[in-house]
Design goal:
mainly alpha; 12 helices; 3 strands; globular
Length: 311
């Protein structure tokens, strides 16, 4: 059974799907509604209020809801859909933690090396602000809570929605596109959107969603997407911060430059050049084949003897 077919291992009534989606995705829907209905000045004023908070407290408050929501998703999958969390994670007999580590290291090394190269070329607008005590607090919060934050996003978008939408529409391309667009929309209220531009940031967010979705479908599991997403967010939190980003932390460095709308280096190059190269690396390492079927093929219900619904 492939990854999307794992949804057949549980109950799949439409009311279960709607209930779970509304309960778990409510925070993302709420953020998007606030973004659409608020004036730009109101959003800026709200962000100014939070700037008076210690950055680690602000980060803690932002990340704690993800602990509850990820737990809620797991409970609904297990007790409403009556299926295992393993089936939501991977089509393999057990979770492959080496895959998580590899993709984590891949994005971490790329991000750190890229930053160091850019810093060596021009550091005029990068401030070294390392404070051992503040950074230690940030590190502890990040290591403990970011796995829940990225876990919710991956298990919801590339896991739950990818599988259940795929079973409903009987193909793989539609849930890949839909979850990538929804992933972008879910981040529409981020400060970067107002600073850089809506469509520019949607290219980046939707492009990242496509990358993670392709990883999931080609590798038949969430492991690579989980590692990549965790590495990306941890480094964004710990390495460099800026006043106009969603993650304003006590990072090692602070970028004091003004955001440039539609910057090629930060949006188009990662999406159009770096992401395909990363997929190529992963495809060589894990022997991905039959791309057409895995990304565009049909989803068919497997024979009953191939799976058993948990009673």
């Amino acid at each position: 059974m492939n990854y999307i077919q794992q949804a057949y291992k549980g109950q799949r009534e439409i009311w279960m799907f709607i209930l779970t989606t509304i309960f778990v995705a409510g925070i993302f829907l709420g953020n998007f509604v606030v973004y659409l209905t608020s004036e730009p000045g109101e959003l800026d004023a709200a962000m100014d209020l939070f700037k008076n908070w210690p950055s680690s407290v602000f980060l803690l408050v932002n990340l704690l809801p993800f602990v509850f929501l990820l737990g809620l998703l797991f409970l609904l999958v297990k007790y409403v859909h009556q299926r295992s969390i393993l089936s939501l994670t991977t089509s393999r007999p057990k979770v492959d933690y080496k895959r998580i580590l590899f993709s984590f290291l891949m994005i971490t090394i790329y991000t750190v090396v890229t930053f160091l190269i850019m810093y060596s070329i021009d550091s005029s607008e990068i401030v070294f602000q390392f404070n051992a005590v503040k950074f230690a607090i940030l590190f502890i919060i990040s290591i403990i809570l970011f796995p829940f934050q990225i876990g919710l996003e991956e298990y919801l978008f590339r896991g739950y929605l990818m599988q259940h939408v795929g079973v409903l529409v009987k193909n793989k391309w539609f849930p890949l596109i839909l979850t990538s667009v929804l992933f972008g929309v879910a981040h529409a209220a981020n400060p970067e959107v107002g600073a850089i531009g809506f469509w520019q940031m949607m290219i980046f967010y939707v492009g990242t969603g496509l990358l993670l979705g392709i990883m999931t479908l080609m590798d038949e599991g969430l492991e690579l997407a989980l590692g990549f997403h965790l590495g990306n967010n941890l480094i964004a939190s710990l390495l460099v911060t800026a006043d106009w980003t969603a993650l304003q932390t006590d990072a090692i460095f602070k970028d004091t430059s003004e955001p440039v709308a539609g910057t090629v280096s930060e949006i188009l190059i990662p999406v159009l050049v770096i992401y395909p190269l990363m997929l190529l690396i992963l495809s060589k390492r894990y022997g991905w084949k039959n791309w057409n079927d895995k990304l565009l093929g049909k989803v068919e219900e497997p024979p009953k003897e191939d799976y058993k619904i948990i009673e």
